[in-house]
């Protein structure tokens, strides 16, 4: 109790509150602008925290981190250019919803679910951090493989009616994921001697290309008669209680999945949001509606990524192992004050830990306001007509792709994916399976090969662990069931090209 | 019959099949040396390529079958229109921009590209065309280079000098 | 909870860096160098050991040089992307590169050519390699037990570190060769994952520099079993050295800086001098102590650093050829 009192005192001082609120606002802004993200933001703030005392500095970093995880969804929903990797999935349903004139609603769902996911994971972290850290450590390669495999099989449902096409696109995504230096052997694969490919294809670059550039090319072809939504007033509209109650199981499941995946070292909020989306599809009564702009498709990834942001703090605070890129930078924030996050710090300075917990509660609540403010700022751009907005989006897409690793080759890769996205859109191939496979392909391959190496290539030993075995069995069962019901009830849909435009 | 084979899906499948076949031969050379263990660097891509080949046959089969059964509309002749021209111009504009960026730099090239792009998309308001690109470029340069230290391309020669004036 | 004094320090820092960002004035180096911000390229992500090193060194260095120093992270492709970027910039001393052992290894593997491309600036840190085991490991708790167990069970002991063909793998394999044992190396792409694998008992031995796992050592979640050095460390007096065990390996990860080849010598010397002052500054020393990087002297001037590259290159080439990575 005394600890809480100290923490309360630390966090609710005017100065600390100013830093927390400013930090969240800054995080949301950085997240929303493509090319800038909270990882960079925290790295740049560390020299400034050096001049503060340790507690205030860390509260500021935690606030930027919380805000940054949400910020990307604003640009993903409004322009289909995710401002940060964590928000990639949000655009799958957020952008179609915005296009249907419900941008305000989409933003409202995203902000509220982010807040709920964030609060849930901080609560969990606050209560049972040490126990959770143990669970995270019990996960090994077979479990990682099972997670990736389960999410990948959902590609079957994502393609809507065109299952073979969705799988074809998915496997092309898996192939693209193998480009670059193989993490297990160090061999360069499929780079064709071009150094731009040696680091692999970054999925956020591919995503910006396939969605934003693809759309710009599509509209350029359509011609000049494109107006903005000058009449439509985009203001954030929070979902009603009834609407939220409809989402309750989805949000709860996503919050649990997000927290759990966030805790796993080296698997961050981005993977969490993809897995959360896939699971929302798996347990939904109408999986075919995902990708058309439904509330479930926004609630799941948004709850997940913010829950994962809190989850990633668990291994950081209890073991000193960062769960994501930004938490790795936050370690630097501890170190400038001569502190080493980990089990000892947790024992020796509990008041610092509880201050961070409390600051994260506050940050997640304040995010509701910061989100609305920044969303308001950005939605003004949607009123601009496309002949002005298109070139602006292009420039932001370019600096966004460039900013990933400050290299021109990424911008070229973005352009190539723009052409690919254009072709796929034109001939009715869904882009989502490509992106999902690109994100999870590396994890699936690596964990399979590493796990098999650890088990001396004994497939039975690899498959027969309790957690991974269960996940794999459920994934396989739902996959086979989907296949069976498609074959049985709608044989044509398996091939399905019912209303495809002709060449 | 021929019309069934000219569907976009069929053409895409054939291309994917051929590329996969080529990549298979490319990938085989990775698996030399025992240092990599039993599942070497070629193991996974090989599996993925086989699946792509299998699925592309599937997509082509369903597409042809659909046309022959009349459930999918057949191929229609491509008609050249101004739409293709605009598309080509947009692609050229983007490619040209990316090609020149390392030599001319972000600061100088971006406003020019935006002005051209706005014209292409049919914008005719001169005030907007000649104000927004400069304001946006300047805003991005200041935010990205001064506040966040992103090294946007500066260009070479005289353009490098111009860029150095600002960042 | 900021005191007035801290508030003041903070605002001075904020204002001065703001002013630095927008003003250009001639520096007091050769030919007015530096007159505009210097960029330091790091080939690893923000928050890693190298990134921390560069950022902590550049904080005082910016004050000494009187210009802003921007740290740019360009990750991917074992540093090849970052190297290419540095090579595309003019050789004028405004682009500094965090030169790492990977550049030498990439040269062995034919991806880069360090001797043609880069000129040595300074080495600042000499880190230490250590092995750790999980305290619940039933088979061995010391280096001797490890060697004995590995001899009885060839190929069964699983080591882990970061990425294949890395300095981690090289030191593990050199150790195995010197001890006459046959081991398995299971690499991870990110260091935290390898820590978690040993903490969770999935793999046996972790190779890591002590700075990033110090809290886990203090909490007895990881037991250090050997340090690759010729004398025991003050911080861990109970951990035997490699030399004591008859294994003559004392190398460890080093961190230093380089510039593009062709940079004028006066600028190289001026920078080396400024960086020496930065490394001696209070704030850098504080970071170095917190990250356990002060256990071995690490400073090398440009000439010495260049000679060291040669030796390291030859040693890496030998072991990578032996392992079968180079044909």
TrEMBL record, chain A:
Keyword Transmembrane helix: yes
UniProt keyword Membrane present: yes
PANTHER family hit by this protein: TRICARBOXYLIC TRANSPORT PROTEIN
Pfam families noted in UniProt: TctA
This protein's UniProt keywords: Membrane, Transmembrane, Transmembrane helix
Lineage of source species: Bacteria, Pseudomonadati, Thermodesulfobacteriota, Desulfobulbia, Desulfobulbales
Membrane-spanning intervals of the chain: 12-36, 56-79, 106-124, 144-160, 167-186, 192-217, 254-277, 352-374, 386-409, 429-448, 460-484
Domain called DUF112: residue spans: 17-436
Protein name: Putative tricarboxylic transport membrane protein
TrEMBL record, chain B:
The keyword Membrane appears for this protein: yes
Transmembrane stretches, start-end: 49-68, 89-121, 127-145
DUF1468 domain: residues covered: 11-153
Coiled coil: none
Pfam family, one: TctB
Transmembrane recorded as keyword: yes
UniProt superkingdom: Bacteria
Keywords: Membrane, Transmembrane, Transmembrane helix
Protein name (database record): Tripartite tricarboxylate transporter TctB family protein
Organism: Desulfofustis glycolicus DSM 9705
Automatic annotation (TrEMBL), chain C:
Signal peptide bounds: 1-26
UniProt keyword annotations, A-Z: Receptor, Signal
Family: Belongs to the UPF0065 (bug) family.
SUPFAM superfamilies: Periplasmic binding protein-like II
Record-given protein name: Tripartite-type tricarboxylate transporter, receptor component TctC
Organism: Desulfofustis glycolicus DSM 9705
UniProt cross-references to Pfam families, sorted A to Z: TctC
InterPro entries membership: BUG, Bug_dom1
